[in-house]
Amino acid sequence: MDNTHEFVEELHERQRKAEQNEKRQGKAQANRKLPNKQHSTNK
């Protein structure tokens, strides 16, 4: 029983960390990303 409980706790922790990383890297909010820079030839 302890092993199952520990496994579930670790799983939830990993899911929480993955969600935070997605927010920090902008994957969760693609509309807030800055547009790419244009090349200097587009004058």
Please provide a written account of the structure.
InterPro entries: DUF4023 (IPR025097). This protein has 43 residues and is mainly alpha-helical. The protein has one helix spanning 2-25. The radius of gyration is 19 Å and the shape is rod-shaped. The model has no long low-confidence stretch (mean pLDDT 77).
Mean pLDDT equals 77
> The biggest beta sheet, please?
none
Amount of beta strand: under 5%
N→C terminal distance: 67 Å
Biased composition (Basic residues): 34-43
Protein name: DUF4023 domain-containing protein
Region (Disordered): 1-43
Pfam family, one: DUF4023
Blueprint (SSEs and pairs):
Layout (H helix, E strand, L loop, with lengths): L1 H24 L18
Offer a quick outline of the entry.
This is DUF4023 domain-containing protein. Residues 1-25 have a biased composition (Basic and acidic residues). By secondary structure, the protein is mostly helical.
What are the defining features of this structure?
single chain; 43 residues; mainly alpha; 1 helix
